[in-house]
Design a protein that fits this description.
Number of helices: 10
Helix content: 55-70%
Oligomer: single chain
Distance between the termini: 23 Å
Shape: elongated
Length: about 200
C-alpha cells in the first residue's frame, strides 16, 4: 500500500533537492518544495508602482525579481493577476501564479495554472517537473509520473525530475526504478546525498 505520509522520506528528499539547488547555479525556473529558505522581509520599491500600471513588461520584471528573492507568494500572485488583466494569454503569468499557489499549498489551483501555462506554450522541462510535484502532493501519482517523464524527455540533463521521479518510484515500491533514476541523477550531478541513497537503497 502507498505510504502517502512517509515524513522521514519527505524530509530526506527536501534536504537533498534543496542542497542540489544551492549546488547548481541555474537561470531556469526552479523546483517546487526544495527546502530552500525564503526571506520574509518586505520588498522595498524605489519607484511608485502606479506609474507603471498597465505595463506588462514592468510586471514581468517585478515577478522575476520577487521570484528570485523568494518573496511572499501573495506578491507573486498579485503581479501575475495584474498581467492577466492586460494579457489573459500570458503563459508566464500563469506559470508564476502556479508556482506561488503551490508554495501556499494550493495544489489543485497550482496544477490548473501550470496546465494553462503549458497550453499557452510554456513547455520547458521544469514546468512539467513542477506540475508533477504538485500532482504528487494530492496523490495523483499517475499524473505525476507522466509529467516527470515529460520533464526528462524535454531535457535529459535536468537532474531534478530524475531525483523526484526516483522518490516517487520508491513510494510506489519500485526500488529498481528508483535506483536507476538515482544513478542517472548522480551521473549528472555527483552529489554525496545521491551517493548515499544509492549505497543504502540499491544492491
Amino acid at each position: 500500500f502507498l505510504k502517502v505520509n512517509d515524513m522521514s522520506n519527505i524530509k530526506k528528499r527536501t534536504a537533498l533537492v534543496g542542497a542540489l539547488l544551492s549546488l547548481i547555479a541555474t537561470g531556469q525556473h526552479f523546483i517546487m518544495g526544495t527546502g530552500a529558505v525564503f526571506t520574509s522581509s518586505a520588498v522595498i520599491f524605489l519607484m511608485p508602482e502606479k506609474v507603471y500600471a498597465g505595463n506588462e513588461d514592468f510586471y514581468l520584471d517585478k515577478l522575476d525579481e520577487l521570484y528570485m528573492e523568494g518573496a511572499d507568494p501573495n506578491r507573486l500572485i498579485f503581479y501575475a493577476n495584474e498581467i492577466l488583466k492586460i494579457n489573459p494569454r500570458s503563459g508566464d503569468a500563469y506559470w508564476y501564479r502556479a508556482y506561488a499557489k503551490v508554495e501556499k499549498g494550493q495544489y489543485d489551483d497550482g496544477i490548473a495554472d501550470y496546465t494553462k501555462a503549458i497550453a499557452l506554450g510554456v513547455k520547458d522541462s521544469m514546468t512539467f517537473n513542477n506540475r508533477a510535484y504538485a500532482q504528487e502532493q494530492i496523490g495523483d501519482y499517475n499524473g505525476a509520473m507522466s509529467d516527470y517523464d515529460s520533464a526528462i524527455r524535454k531535457d535529459r540533463k535536468n537532474v531534478y525530475p530524475y531525483v523526484n521521479r526516483a522518490y516517487l518510484k520508491q513510494t510506489l515500491g519500485d526500488i529498481e526504478g528508483a535506483c536507476f533514476d538515482w544513478r542517472k541523477a548522480f551521473s549528472l550531478e555527483p552529489y554525496e546525498d545521491l551517493s548515499e541513497e544509492i549505497r543504502n537503497q540499491c544492491q
